[in-house]
Specification:
Helices cover 28% and strands 36% of the residues. With 413 residues, it is α+β, with helices and mostly antiparallel strands. The longest helix has 21 residues, at 3-23. The relative contact order is 0.11.
């Protein structure tokens, strides 16, 4: 038999197999409910390809990745049907911290075994929990989330009915590792998510010129937190807390500078001696507290002050009680309101940049005080250099910058 007649069909079949395994993607999105107002899509195949490429080009990580895989268990062996696009969504009128995802299962028994290996606690009725992560198994599906409040609704809405519309991935994502989409009625605003060697970028514009101009102005600062927002940005962020705050308070400019400090906190208690005399006892503990200065500009300072009073955020000592870190002092002037901590706040005064940004720099005091986080979460936070949000006109960016390391971010995290 002619060898060419055998080799050519084999090459064609191999090419077809490679295409379907590595490049073909099922773009049907079946697990996004109609009342979702935000969707995160992860292109699993693109991200896997990026991981494999980085792994091949960094042989020093080969032995470490194998050891990690054996100890933590593999998703491929967890009974999960890996989707081409991982669909994560947020539901309208729920807390900002509540996000959900639905996965198909090949073997629910293997998946339960996997959850137990990951130290999830069996809560009964096919529900499992580990810290702030929740999972419920429903037949050949599982719902995972940072809350379990919407589990029953999602089961009825997506798993027990076929009426939910099937969306197309092209509505949300375009040739990037991931996307964040904000949904308002029929309007969808898409932001690309790109994973680079030492940073994650979320943006709706590929032109970095405006973003770089904001970042360059912030390079000389050293504060833990710097932010400056105009009225439009204040209204956007107020949606996560209270829709009425921005309008009712008349605030049109907001600037905050803050640092972290470790201080000795005095705890006073009382005990009695042998003669039943009350004896004061002092103990000390180290706590982390911020020093901050907040500058608020208002179109009507009197109305802003009255609004804060109506919310009972100002006490008799002129302290702003909506901020849990005390003590502080609140005062008003012709342009607005100033709130400052009573220690070292004068050192926090910084010039107005006339830009919209939020910059959070890493600080060892931050992640050392987050006692509820696990080892892996603390390790990731400690590896972050800064988080920067910027906005100019209709362009928005978020950059999560990691510290320089020998390995790219996808192999570190």
């Amino acid at each position: 038999m002619n060898k060419k007649k055998i080799i050519v069909p084999l090459i064609v079949l191999l090419a077809i197999a490679v295409y379907f395994v590595a490049f073909y993607k099922n773009k049907n999105l079946k697990y996004i409910p109609g009342n979702a107002d935000a969707v995160v899509l992860i292109d699993v195949k693109k991200l896997t390809g990026q991981y494999v490429f980085n792994l091949i080009t960094h042989p020093s990580h080969w032995s470490g990745s194998k050891a990690k895989g054996k100890s933590s268990g593999s998703l491929k062996e967890a009974g999960i049907r890996i989707p081409d696009f991982l669909q994560i969504f947020h539901l309208k009128d729920t807390k900002f911290s509540e996000w959900y995802s639905i996965l198909e299962l090949k073997d629910s028994g293997k998946f339960i075994t996997f959850l137990k290996k990951q130290n999830f606690v069996d809560k009964g009725n096919n529900r499992f929990q580990k810290d702030r992560f929740f999972v419920v198994i429903d037949g050949n599906h599982c719902i995972a989330g940072t809350s379990d409040m919407a589990f029953e609704t999602l089961q009825k809405q997506l798993l027990q009915t076929s009426s939910n519309p099937v969306l197309d991935a092209d509505q949300f994502i375009h040739h990037t590792a991931g996307s964040l989409s904000l949904i308002s009625g029929k309007k969808i605003q898409n932001f690309s998510i790109e994973l680079n060697d030492d940073e994650i970028e979320i943006k709706n514009n590929s032109n970095p010129k405006n973003f770089n101009s904001i970042a360059s102005k912030l390079q000389t600062g050293k504060h833990f937190l710097d932010l400056e927002l105009d009225k439009e940005n204040i209204q956007n962020f107020s949606r996560f807390f209270s829709k009425s705050i921005a309008d009712s308070s008349q605030i049109n400019y907001f600037k905050v500078t803050a640092d972290l400090e470790q201080v000795n906190d005095t705890i006073i208690s009382y005990e009695y001696d042998d003669n039943f005399n009350e004896v004061e006892k002092k103990t000390f503990q180290k706590i982390i507290q911020p020093n901050y200065f907040i500058d608020i500009k208002s179109s009507d300072p009197e109305k802003t002050w009255a609004y804060f009073q109506s919310k009972k955020w100002i006490n008799n000592e002129n302290q702003f009680t909506a901020i849990p870190f005390q003590p502080n002092q609140i005062s008003r002037n012709n342009e607005g309101i100033a709130i400052k901590s009573t220690q070292k706040s004068t050192a926090l005064l910084s010039p107005q940049l006339k830009e919209n940004y939020i910059l959070i720099r890493n600080n060892a005091l931050l992640y050392s005080s987050l006692k509820t986080l696990g080892i892996n979460e603390k390790r990731i936070i400690s590896d972050i250099d800064y988080v920067l949000y910027g906005n100019k006109s209709q362009d928005y960016w978020i950059k999560i910058k990691a510290k320089n390391g020998e390995l790219p971010l996808i192999l570190r995290w």
